[in-house]
Amino acid sequence: MRVCSIASGSSGNCIYAGTDHTHLLIDAGCSKKKIVEGLGGLGLALDDISAILLTHEHSDHVAGLRTLMKHCDVPLYATSGTLAALTRDDAGQQTRYTIAAGESFAIGDLTAQPFAISHDAAEPVCYRITADDGAVFAMATDLGCYDENTIAHLTGADVLLLEANHDIRMLQTGPYPYPLKQRILGDKGHLSNDASGALLSRVLHDGLKAVMLGHLSERNNLQELAYETVRLEVEMGDTPYHASDFRLMVADRHLPSAALSF
Ligand SMILES: [Zn+2]
Ligand SMILES: [Zn+2]
């Protein structure tokens, strides 16, 4: 499998996960131009995309969907809540498949397992993607808190994309209005760097190859701070693992990440 973050952050999210035969986009929250460039870096074009999987209807996950759909006729997979919450401006008339948390579905040689997350959207999910050869990628962004179900879906993955949205102190002392701060910090908001590190500590295992931190806030986080906070959480935490046991990287808000092959 190959995974690449084409864009990740509160201003737009699009993740590529695919094999030689099947190519998925998870969300389309950035411009078509950016997605085409990101795919180009992987040697792929829009026509190669097999399906688009949505996590939820917030604009940072669907803003580029409509334009994208004008240029490629690929099926869209989302929960009924997400599909119902999409406005006419979000999407065109492409084929839509309704999915549900806890019900796996296959696309080519990939199997996607959507799982529910705690976020203030209609029916948000994240995904665990398994290739026929056994490779596993799991992602969890846009969640205010996690539970055993989240942990179960992230356990045993080769590569993880985890939200490290904000530094709590930067958020608390930053410019956001109080209600927005409360929303982000709440159970249906976003994972802080500390929470991200704590979650990662729960799913470390011998086979973990790489962890990408993503969905960083522009105003309330810094790449170095996210990296260092999560690294320290792993180092200081009560696990036999060290941050040097796997590749830890931070997905850029606007630029494609390195492609991870595993
Ligand atoms: Zn969201
Ligand atoms: Zn988001």
Note down, in words, how this protein is organized.
The chain is α/β, with parallel strands linked by helices. It has one domain: Metallo-beta-lactamase, Chain A (4-Layer Sandwich). It has a 7-stranded mixed β-sheet. It has a 7-stranded mixed β-sheet with strand order 7-8-9-10-11-12-13. Helix 8 crosses helix 9. The radius of gyration is 17 Å and the shape is globular. Bound molecules: zinc ion (2 copies). One zinc ion (ZN) binds next to helix 2.
Q: Which stretches are low in confidence, meaning pLDDT under 50 for 5 or more residues running?
A: none
Q: Tell me the span between the first and last alpha carbons.
A: 6 Å
Number of domains: 1
Radius of gyration: 17 Å
Count the beta strands: 14
Q: Give the CATH architecture.
A: 4-Layer Sandwich
Order of helices and strands: EEEHEHHEHEEEEEHEHHHEHEE
Q: What is the helix content?
A: 25-40%
Layout of helices and strands, plus pairs?
Blueprint: E1 2-7, E2 14-18, E3 23-26, H1 32-41, E4 51-53, H2 59-62, H3 65-71, E5 76-79, H4 80-85, E6 96-99, E7 105-107, E8 110-116, E9 125-131, E10 136-140, H5 148-154, E11 159-163, H6 168-173, H7 178-185, H8 193-203, E12 210-214, H9 223-236, E13 247-250, E14 260-261
Parallel strand pairs: 3-4, 4-5, 5-6, 10-11, 11-12, 12-13
Antiparallel strand pairs: 1-2, 1-14, 2-3, 7-8, 8-9, 9-10
Helix pairs in contact: 8-9
The protein binds zinc ion (2 copies).
